[in-house]
Amino acid sequence: MKLWLITDEFPPDYGGGISMYADIVSRGFADAGHEVRVITASPRAKVEKVTDRLVYVRFPRPTGHEDPCMGYMLSLCRAYYQQTMALMDAVGAPDVIELPDYNAIGYYLLQAKRLGEKRLQRVKLVVHCHTPSFEIMRVNRSPEYAFPVYWIGQMERYCLAAADALVAPSRFMRERLMPYARGNRFDVIPLPYRFHQGQLPYEGGRHLLYAGRLEYRKGIWQLLKPMARLWERGERTPLVLVGGDTYFEPGGKTLGRMIREQYGRWIDEGLLKLHGLVPPQEVERLMAKAKAVLVPSIYENYPYTNITAMANGVPVLVSRQGGQAEAVSEDGVNGFIFDWEKEDDCYHALQRLLGLEDGELRAVGERGYRRMRALCGLDSNLPRREAFYQSVLRQPDVITPYPFLTPLTQTPWPEAVANSPELPGVLSVVIPYFNLGKTVEETVQSVLRSDYDAGKLEIILLDDGSTNPDSIRKAEELARQYPLRLERISNGGLANARNTGIRLARGEYVCFLDADDTVEPAYFRRCVEVLRLHENVSYVYSWVQYFENSHDIWVAFDTVFPYFCAQNQLTCMAVVRRKDYLAFGLNHPAMEYGLEDYDGWLGLAENGRMGVCIPEPLVNYRVRTGSMTRSMSMGAMIYLRSRLRELHPELYRQYGQELYLLLMENGTNLQWRHPLHSNTAYRADGALSEAEALSRELNAIKQRRGYRMMDWLATRVYGNRLVRALRFRVWPAVRERAMRRKRRRMDG
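Given the sequence above, the corresponding structure tokens read:
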């Protein structure tokens, strides 16, 4: 079997659980005789032939500056697609490509297969569910609707829906992601672990160990409350925290700082120790010398911390809220389990654990080792994965219907529309035309250069009452020179022209093309191919290349609610099924200042007719001074938006709550670009990077008065007891005494 593994975290550039998983799986399958390639973004491009059957393909990670129209995350997703397809062209297609759910880095590969990319049709695309960012954001109480993390979450949901099959390490994660899988096969296989000879034995130490990020989701903040109760009652067992820090949005500071402020007393007494990041070997050493390892997450998949501890014979105390409980299975047998949903259950579990003798703990650790060996050892785990992949390869490919994230029920066509005649396979290109004699010929020529079957192409030049003599003559000249129909109507505005054009069109498909825009040769063919492939797709469009007064690209996405209610996601140049448009997309004359095409697309969408975007710039939009869109005032824009709400009341009522959150967290939609373009410093997993978190925290400190330097030191200098004492005890006490003296002087 030829297996390609795509990952955005891989040694030596990244550590952590995902990196460990990718390393173990790739080496294990290669050792078992399969051909394996790992594709990963890296600071430098490099192809490493590890063995005859294992190759690492590293490509340069985008900097975010190559294409400012896309932003970093979109550039990264595109880069993974482009590198994978280029490798496929060079060495041939694999049997299976495994993609992670996080960051949606497989988004364009999955979409390309759904859009009919021939090179991917025999390749099975399997999504491995580590933990998507949209779940992490929710549990961490971070802004779920802020760009770009909101849209990354939408892309992750698409990956779950579009996969040929899915696999998760825990039943816990499978149950939570199953609603997004749309009935796709979804198996559970625990993470693999490479057991080595001579692993550190359990020594039965005196401290408890937490190894993981200081993150709200990980339960460490919640764990400290019962630990503090035990310390208050005389328990002297220290708790050691190992791992990096993260920013906690509701607290407005890092979780590490919150811990230092709230539990500084226990730090000073040596019962709570924060070590920060340490090398993996040091983590295992601390585990071996610990009394037990704690995994208190309030939401977790199948953490390698738990696997590593049990694999070293170290007893573990875990919460029921995650795959760690599945690994332990039986409370008191292979480890200890508590439930956050039961009041004081964590406290009583800690009491029970701390009351056991070393021999009892060692016996629990030994049973945990045997269970982990059976679940995660390569001799049993890899055959399960191999059998899963082989069974997926035997599945028939099903790429229809198209996996829209927010599909609405399709309204039947009115009888008159359903019975209206049309020419099968014919594409009618309607060019509304008003005094654009200087540009219209370029538009017509671009249509005629199309690689769509010329015998199936109808061009209608619709003169909307032009008044310029040169433009009138130009239309007549084009009618004589090119194979097109010239139709003249009295000037009634663009909405009326499009409504008239759709009624004049005879084709099964229709495209409205403004008389100053152009299309690429492949555009019509590729749009119609998607429409023929997916009956549930009503219209197809692409990214837009601006020209003349701008050279930017309008990056677009499939139609998705509620975002589509706040921002148009396509131009008028989409290729649409004629009957759908005639039934639900006719433009309202009330949209007299513009946005008439947006109104039509909303009408289609609210009747269950959704659109798909081809992620390439296949149409060209002329940005010219004085155009209707460019000259629209803010007042006109606000008025038109209010008209949209009045014309589509049920749509805005249905998505009103989510729209409120989008606007609250991103500002007015009149200033949005695209939902992945943002200057915020959020990581894709929903947390701020530690450096950015500290920077924000320091900036917030600078806004306050009185103790800037001490705050800076307390934030930066971890483990310095003197600094903590000065910042959190001495300085507040001095300040309070000074305030009391000031009040006494004022009173006197």
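The longest helix spans residues 721-747. Try to locate this feature in the token string yourself.
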